[in-house]
Sequence to fold (565 residues):
Amino acid sequence: MTSAAEAAPRELAARPARVRPARFLLPLYTWLVIAYTIVPIGVMVAYGFNRAPSGRLTFRWIGFTTEWYRHVFDIADLTSALVNSLELATASTLISLVLGVPLALALARHRFRGTAVVDSTIFVDIAAPSVVVGASLLSFFITLNVARGLGTILVAHVAFNVAYVAVVVRARAVGLDPAIEKAAADLGAGPFTAFRTVTLPLLAPGIVAAALLAFAMSIDDFIITQFVAGQTLTFPLWVYGAVKVGIPPQVFVMGTLIFAAGVLVAVANTVLQRRTELG
Amino acid sequence: MATGLRSRLTPYLLGMPGGVYLAVFFVVPLFAVLSVSLQTGNPDAGFVLTWHWGEYVTAIQRYHTQFVRSFEYAGISTGLSLVFAYPMAYWIAFHGGRHKSTYLLLVLLPFFVSFVIRTLAWQFILSDQGFVLGTLKGWHLLPQSTHVLSTPTAVLAGLTYSALPFMVLPLYVALERIDPRLVRAAGDLYARPASSFLRVILPLSAPGVFAGFLLVFVTNVGDYVNASILGGPGTTMVGNVIQTAYLQNFDYPMASALSSLLIAGTLLVIFLYARAFGAARIQEYA
Fold:
């Protein structure tokens, strides 16, 4: 037997083995994992339609009703917790854009003293366990004797959102060619005009993505918020508090509505972006 | 001259507001924790910095079980989510074709549901009379006495579930960057699929594994929501202890000592992992 003859059957044996798991097992596995991710979401949507005679959900399925969709805002303190969450998400997104976009530009465009320090601070801010971030902010507020409430929650949300905005916008800014801005300057545009008419539109997709991420992070945050909230309740805090006494179906209805809105915005954003990139 | 000075100042002016904000509301508070952990006093009279290290000794004596358990749960859930996520990220990256972004969106769907509600949904799924256990018991496939809630299994299921998207994303990014020609070249050089996977794909995806490990392990080691909604008295994690000490007992020095120990322990694990497997350019992926 020559070595070539040995190699040939080995290759023949290797080929199907290389293709088969990719063709059959891996997609099956992927779909199983996707099912695992979707099941709890399905549970949330389904139990929003479950009959609950006492106004509190039981684990048992009793029957289909759309009653909770008609009475979604009937629980006053739950609704006001949701309003708090929406206000906090809006405010913290705006503030973190104002602080984070220039920071991202500084990091993407310039080498300056302290780049490494700012860089690693942002990284640690994103990677630190929430319980530590929450505990440290609470220690800080206690030390300064600051009363906890909406204001301290806002401060905390901006503190993590600035880091997310900086990372997302920076990724977009790094890809921009500085020559474009220089060309604008050569054509007589001042630095502010060049920024407003050239840089900002090019950064826009990154800024939109950062804003969506910041909004989602704020509305979803539980652990850090619980530490700095005092007596104020946000939507996740209200839900957590209700776990021990029983969950009203409205919680799952609101969860479903937030979910639907989030998916719609994400899909719309992707479609719009694809369209602008094509056109 | 004036423009030169201005352009040299530009990055500082741009970075200043955000940088100062992070310094005041993220970095300084981290030191506030250390300071509070060395204070003595009570909630009514106030606390004074006395450099009293005793809280650390008490914290370890009283809560070492919860500490070890947190690292154990975080380790297991990180491992499980890696096992779930890797083949999937691999398949999407190499065989996803035109639908890559659709698959990714499906994996990321949990991000659109509030974290607390997701955990709550698991409580409904795993409850004794819920549709999984209830149905299986109805068919007499499980004894009536079976229950999953308040066991470590329930907490691990919740932790692994919430970890999954954080694991898939960095893995996908790392795998997507691998040039398929490298894999084909390995095949042309008579590498068997297994060895081309072990010697080409796996090493090249290592930064993604590290980023996933970092995101998931760090999030889960400090989590207390899963343990409190899905767990029982036997599954208390250090996050639960810190939360109770801070928000119910107002024992700030003890809570801060525990937080400091948690930071130290987490950094140690990350450091050991990075030493063992190398950590090239993590930040890019995280």
